[in-house]
Known about the structure:
By secondary structure, this protein is α/β, with parallel strands linked by helices. It contains twelve helices and 15 strands.
Amino acid sequence: MVLCSNPSEQFKSYQSEIEDAVISVMRGNSYVLGEQVRYLEREFAEYIGTSSAIGVANGTDAIEIALRALNIGFGDEVITVSHTAVATIAAIEATGASAVLVDVDSKFYTLNPAHLQELLTKKTKAIIAVHLYGQAADLDPIITFCNSNKIYLIEDASQAHGAKYNNKRVGSIGDIGCFSCYPTKNLGAIGDAGLVTSNNHELASKIRMIREYGWQDRVSMQPGRNSRLDELQAAILRIKLRHLDKDNQKRRDIAEFYYEKLLELPILLPSIRSNAESVFHLFVIQVETRDSLLSFLKEDGIIAGIHYSLPVHMQPAYNDRVIKSEDMTVTENIVQKIISLPIYPELSKSDLNKIVNRIKRFFNL
Ligand SMILES: Cc1ncc(COP(=O)(O)O)c(C=O)c1O
């Protein structure tokens, strides 16, 4: 069986390092928000290029806490895309704010800045730019829009640990960067984890307070919650962070192989911005006969994915509530055609050959 992503293969790559680190945490006397979290925060901030990083319980919390740190809540509006993990929108709603959903562009599948103006209201407080599939959203025009309208920019970099835009790592460009470290992510824990990044000391210390009851010296100075990161996950993430650039390069090599082998087929391959470096969290192609290709691959034990099969504004929990652009044509069209091919650092050459040969057979080649 070839899976779309396979975190247990990554565990095997670093098994002895991880097991040693886990045993050492268990034999210690600090299990939550201890020295492993502190080291991880320092190392991740240095890697991303921010003055601070704050460990939290998961990526959804990272976004919710980022919004709360910017005083965004009930009565406010936050613009983001519908073509994203539901988590992005769930996090907005958890603050009491309303999600305002905009279409993506047809080439890179990220927020289309051309539609921002029509969604702007007096209530708009922030934009969440989602760096989807490992590639940065088009931040330059989004930043110009944010600056001229005095609204905040949050980067949802959950699918793009290490990706670059104009030579800067994503998560270091907006006011706050948010990362999920769910096991399948480029930097994945063996459980839930998340990180928030910022170059603003005041915001960083507020985020640090909010993740633990709003505490400062164990006194709640503002409303907060529990979104602590544990030592086991932090220790594991520190190990994986050391290997992240190498693992991202392996993903790029796999992408290169797909580009080369699938070039002549009736498939739309992913486009990469000239000023961006993708970390290929996913390798998403478009095919007219998507469902039959998915089944054809599955018959041979190849499990491709769909990210995402239903835009958030069309999901039952959201369809009658979220505010959205009138025109969601691109989002609604691509979800019929996209397939995420298997991609992860440990994917073997023989599995890769099997995948491309099977796809070629599907097209009778
Ligand atoms: C774009 C995006 N945002 C947010 C999240 C939420 O992260 P988590 O599952 O860690 O809460 C994810 C993860 O699925 C994601 O892909």
